[in-house]
Amino acid sequence: MALKISRTLLIISFLLAVLSPLSIFAADATESEGGSIDILGKTADHDYFDTAFGKIYLPRIYVINGDISFFSSTKKALASGEFIQTEEGLVRADGEGIDLDLSITSHLVYVWLGILFALLFTMWAASRYKKGIGSQTAPKGAIQNIFEILYLFVRDQIVFEYIPREKAGKYIPFLFSVFMAIAMMNMLGLLPWGASATADLTVTATLALITFIVTQVSGTKDHWQHVFNFPGVPLLVKFILTPVEILGLLTKPFALAIRLFANMLSGKIMIICILGLIFIFTDLFGPSVGVGTSIFWVGLTSVLYGLKVFVALLQAYIFTLLSAVFIGMAAEEHHHDDHHHSDLELLSNTQQSNNH
Amino acid sequence: MDFGFLAAGLGAGIIAIGAGIGIGMIGKGAVESIARQPEASGDIRGAMILTAAFIEGVALIGAIVCILLALGIGA
To answer: I want to staple A320 with a disulfide (CB 3.0 to 4.6 A). Which of A43, A179, A195, A285 is the partner?
Structure first.
């Protein structure tokens, strides 16, 4: 029974997912009658939260001269007369700067939702294991089985594989949370009216910063020695090598942030562009060609949606995997001094030492 | 005249060539080593995805530069 319901739910959500870009796009096309289509506007951060029943406006919070001013929406902020609308957003009417803009935006809400879903899922599973379902018996139900597969995957294939075994235990919670939260945030973008919070550079940069801090905190003496005082090279080479190593520390989280951001953004832009071909064809060859080929474009979009589900999980996996690799590299104790230093060689070293 | 679109299109093409060659070589190496040693396919797959992610990262940085060019940001 439960299986049947969940299967129906799955089919309905799949249909919704396939149809949603159409509805979003149709609404957008009518809005910009005769104008161009705002592709990046779909992926931008807004001061409202899009739902099926219209827009929910989010509060604007500013800190000015130590005072917090709170407005329940952008309109209220404008109505108060303290702010005026410009192209760069709201600015103060008297021309002075805003100290700190703590406004709640749609992407921030999606981050919270992603974390909330990850938390609820994990806490639900934890309560079941506490009751003994799964710990003394086999896990029951599809959802708990999925949870167990995900958890064991992160533990065995990511953490134990790349972090030295004696230190691996304390990183499992962090990496599993990162995995769940990113997967949930990515998947929220597949829902109708939804947006991926990870298609925003500020979100991914924050996630990468957390990984960076965890990596540096777990760095051993060897890790820092390899950065500032590379063993086994002449003094003159050290002057060149130390800046390079410091740069290497910083490029890792940078690449981590860009990778997740660009992957999630490109999927969204691609779908809008392919659906936009219907309108381009209508413009070039007339409505009959546009409508006639639309079956093909919509079919292609549905296939891309399937791919996006895969990419959403894959990117969560890759972010977690690379975080584990970086942490593992920093936390590793080196036993010999003449070491190679490219990431991949270090990686194969880790694997070899694990295999011994 | 504005060459932003031309630059973005050419750039995206060159990125696709580079990333294609790189990921193709990873795939070649991985398939060959799995064929030679099927029991190590798990480890090989992990290393393959990791390497592909590094290449993809570089390619995506290039792609972002192309997007910026096409949008005329910074022009």
So the answer is: A179
